Predict the structure.
Amino acid sequence: MQLIKSNLLNNFSNLTHAFTTREEGASQKPYSSLNLAWHVGDDAQHVETNHELLSEKLGYDKNSLIHMKQIHSNLVHVVNEEDDFFTPKSCDALITNKKNTPLMVMVADCSPLLFYDNKQKVIAVAHAGRAGAFYNIVKNVVDSFVSEFACEPQNIYVTVGASISVCCYEVGQEIYEEACAIGLEYAVNKKEKSYYLDVSKILQTQLLACGIQKEHVEISDACTCCEHESYFSYRKSGVTGRFAGVIALK
C-alpha cells in the first residue's frame, strides 16, 4: 500500500499520519482500488475491507476512527464521547486532543488538511474545496484550536495533501466574480476567456493570516487530475472513489 507522509509531521514521534493513494485496495472499477468512501456507489463490503487494510497498515483500531459526512461547509466539530466510526457528523473539519482517536478527511480533488499543535497535543483534519476555501474553513479550524484547547497559532503545523491544481481547475465566470467579490481574485488565473482557480494559494494565504508560521505549512504540489492514476479525481473521472488524510495521537 502506497502512503504519502508529511515531512513536517514526520518530526513528531507521538503522531500517526498519512495520505492514502488509490492503490492496493479491494474496490473494483471505477472505484479501484483503495476507495474509502461509502457514499460514492461502491460495494459497502469493499469499502469496509479497505478501511481494515488501512487501519492494519497504520496500526490503529478501525472502529476508533472518526470521519465525516462532508457537506462543503466551514463547520468544525469537536470530537466527543458520542462520536464513533459508524455515525459520522455532517461537517468539514474535526478536532480533538484524544489519544488513539484517528481523524480522517476524504477527498477526490479537494484539499485534505492535517493540523497538529505540538505544545497542547491537539490534532485536526479539514476538507477544503472551492467552498471550504471561499468560506475560510481554515480560520474556523484555527479558531477552534484557540477557543477549545487554548492553543496558539504559532505552535500549529499544517500539511495539505494532493488536490486539483490550478492547471486543471477551470471554473466559470460566475466563480471568478464570486472570488473577486470576497477578495480572492489573486487566486484566479485568466487565460484568454477561461478562468483557473488556485485553491492551494488561497489556503496558504489564509493559514498565514491566521498566524501559522510559514515554515509550519507544507502543501503538496501533486495534482489529482493530472495524476489520476495515483489519486481519485472527480474532475477527471466523475464516478470515482475517495482517498484520505489520516492523523492520530498515540
